[in-house]
């Protein structure tokens, strides 16, 4: 079976590509390299450098490579920036999804795993977020991901598309020292860049209504996330029953300050983080249950917080 991985040259997508290969599946990568890296694509894996908005390129990727399913990871994923650039966010994430689904329908591809986000829920006032928790996105990014889920559901009714959406928030760590998160907005690379440069890392907001005043999130290891995508793809291939969406949650979550403490502990670099203002679009707390995903996708937290930090730090050090 051949699976197209959109965004397969990015941090998350590249881990998905390797997990597919390890499971005996054949990946094809489509990525415009706006945030990905050609070097992240393994040798021998077909790679089409193009935007998800380029319908002709998407048609070539699907039609010429015998694609039987799609794992859709490509997208603009920065919640804070999306508040400043809503039109760009909707173009990439909504128009991009429409373009992809139209091409899939034309070529008779009826299986899709969507890399969604816990941002669809917004700033919820529940202890644990479940799949049916009301959706109230706090940013255009979260809204665009929710619309993506709606599009999949509608296409399921209209064209028989079999699909599932995987919702998660902060993805960290590395499953391969050659792959690292290079985002200019994500917490781990920001902290590592500061430490390498001899600067003091900072926390965006320490006055949230949480135990230590900093945001609380599910931090999950990227290799665990990749395995969940492959498990979902395999479930679709077998024709097994599948939920329209799964929360890939830790069940407890950790705060940004706890992350900072782990960073100092693992790297051996002592620091007291500076406190900056809150970023727009950042909910105080989102922690999800992963029970449904554990039941159907063998989802579990296979790494401790220190192991997540250590693997990410090793990848960062390898790039120096």
Describe the model.
- The chain folds into 2 domains: 2-169 and 220-247, NAD(P)-binding Rossmann-like Domain (Rossmann fold, 3-Layer(aba) Sandwich), CATH 3.40.50; 172-217 and 250-288 and 301-318, Alpha-Beta Complex (UDP-galactose 4-epimerase, domain 1).
- 40% of the residues lie in helices and 16% in strands.
- The chain contains 10 helices and 14 strands.
- It has a 7-stranded parallel beta sheet, with helices on both faces.
- Helix 1 (11-22) packs across helix 7, helix 4 packs parallel to helix 5 and helix 8 packs across helix 10 (305-318).
- The mean pLDDT is 96.
- It comes from Microcella putealis.
- This is UDP-glucose 4-epimerase.
Layout of strands and helices, then pairs:
Elements lengths: L1 E5 L4 H12 L3 E6 L15 E3 L5 H9 L5 E4 L6 H6 L1 H21 L4 E5 L24 H20 L2 E6 L2 E3 L14 H11 L4 E3 L11 E2 L1 E3 H17 L6 E3 L6 E2 H12 L6 E3 L8 E2 L4 H7 L7 H14 L2
Parallel strand pairs: 1-2, 1-4, 2-3, 4-5, 5-6, 6-11, 7-10, 8-13, 9-14
Antiparallel strand pairs: 9-12
Helix pairs in contact: 1-7, 2-4, 4-5, 8-10
